[in-house]
Amino acid sequence: MTYKGKLVLAYSGGLDTSVAIPWLKEQGYDVITFTADVGQQIDLKATKEKAMMSGASKAYITDLREEFVEDYVWKSLKANAMYQGTYPLNSALSRPLIANHLVRVAKEEGAVAIAHGCTGKGQDQVRIEVCAKALNPDITVEAPVRDWHFSRDEEIEYAEKHGIPVPVTKASPYSIDENLWGRSTECGILEDPWAEAPSDAFTLTVDPWEAMDEPVVIEIGFEKGIPVSLNGKVMSGVALIEMLNQIAGKAGVGRVDMIEDRLVGFKSREVYECPAAVTLIGAHKALESMTLSKEVLKTKKELEVKYAELAYEGYWFSPLREALDAFIDKTQEVVSGVVRVRLYKGQATVVGMKSENSLYREDLATYSHGDKFDHKAAVGFITVWSLPIKTWSQLHGKKACCEASKVIGME
User: Fold this and answer.
1) Where is the Arginosuccinate synthase-like N-terminal domain (predicted)?
2) Would you state the pLDDT for residue 326?
3) Residue 403 confidence (pLDDT)
4) 199 catalytic residue (yes or no)
5) Is 175 a catalytic residue?
6) 54, 76, 91, 175: which is the annotated catalytic residue?
7) List 65, 95, 183, 255, catalytic entry
8) Domains of the chain, with CATH numbers?
């Protein structure tokens, strides 16, 4: 076996990356693992110990929760980014962050390559590799799971052969990815779109029909599009998301079950649970409807689709995404206020909002006393607004009527 040098592996402690360590060592690499703490509910100390036990020469555990929220989640929230209008991008948003630090650690360690545990069918391979190449065009990327062509059961057998404990079994084969913004669950029965996702596939949310019988009403404070308080208490981004995940999760809010068009060309059944994300995006959209003009809202909604696609497809470190951020940040200068949300049996419903920048004026909208709308002005407005269609009808209307009469046999 030829020694190839140091390699930095993005390590989650799950099945794929656990078996990747001995396999990469068999290829001649000195394996260093890097684990990003982005709010996943795992024992990070145990994860580090397992990496070392599996054969890593060094194991990094880095708390990236604040960076994840400030530089990725909040940018996505301001864009209301949801892939295909449904998926809040919880896994997708963590990939550029992980790629950024993989490249950093590789430089610090003098490593010749980085590696990930993605399969050849997933989009994460694209996200990590494209982002890594954007940051270091000359970096070498290894993808052991993509290269070895093991089935899931064969991976489990390989792990057992090498004495590596893994958090899955043949009886419970879920593949899970989790961070502050949500949780993704794949494999097993979830691959059958006819089968309802079982309760044991969820951990952040209770079954909506089992949720508490009384609704919970919360108030979320925003400043320039960013959530800054919950029920009047100013909180850091990390703390606010953690708290909201608990509150909304207990109400069964945030489950997403969809057929998703994967970047690599096929459809996949995907199950997510994102209590905080679903609640905050809904509240943010509502506040924008009150504070942004009609034309800004219309244009922003069109660009939000592109923003979500860029994040999903691995183009986070692209000039277009940075340009969209500039536009979005400008729109968010006035998106400040408080949104009241009712959480109940799987639903997060906006039931009130207020803002000093509100474009809603009760004296214009009311049909009661105090109405200041100039009703007489409507006559001139309709005259001007109808002029194009009136002119067309004057020129072509009679001919069009005759043609229509022929079609229905009136002549």
Assistant:
1) 6-165
2) 98
3) 66
4) no
5) yes
6) 175
7) 95
8) 5-175 (3.40.50.620), 178-362 (3.90.1260.10)
* Structure token digits, residue 380: 């001139």
CB atoms closer than 10 angstroms to residue 293 = 11
Q: What band does 362 get if pLDDT is binned at 50, 70 and 90?
A: confident
The answer to whether the CB of 6 falls within 8 A of the CB of 102 is no
Supply the pLDDT for residue 268: 92
Q: pLDDT digits over 168-201, tens only? A: 555 566 778 999 999 998 888 889 999 999 999 9
For residues 334 and 355, what is the distance between their CA atoms, to the nearest angstrom?
A: 9
Please identify which of the residues 54, 76, 94, 124 carries the catalytic annotation.
Answer: 124
Residue numbers belonging to the annotated binding site for L-citrulline:
87, 127, 175, 184, 260, 272
Note the pLDDT of residue 246. 98
CB 103 within 8 A of CB 135: yes
Q: Which two tokens stand for residue 184?
A: 């993704």
Q: Which residues are annotated as a binding site for L-aspartate?
A: 119, 124
Mean pLDDT value across residues 48-65: 95
What values do phi and psi take at 295, rounded to 5? -70, -35
Predicted local distance difference test score (pLDDT) of residue 56: 95
Do 271 and 257 form a contact (C-beta atoms < 8 A)?
A: yes
For residue 358, indicate whether it is catalytic.
Answer: no
pLDDT tens string 138-160:
999 999 988 887 777 788 888 88
d(CA 179, CA 38): 5
| Closest C-alpha to 331, from 290, 288, 360 | 288
List residues forming the annotated binding site.
Answer: 10-18, 36, 87, 117, 119, 124, 127, 175, 184, 260, 272
The question of whether 371 is a catalytic residue gets the answer: no
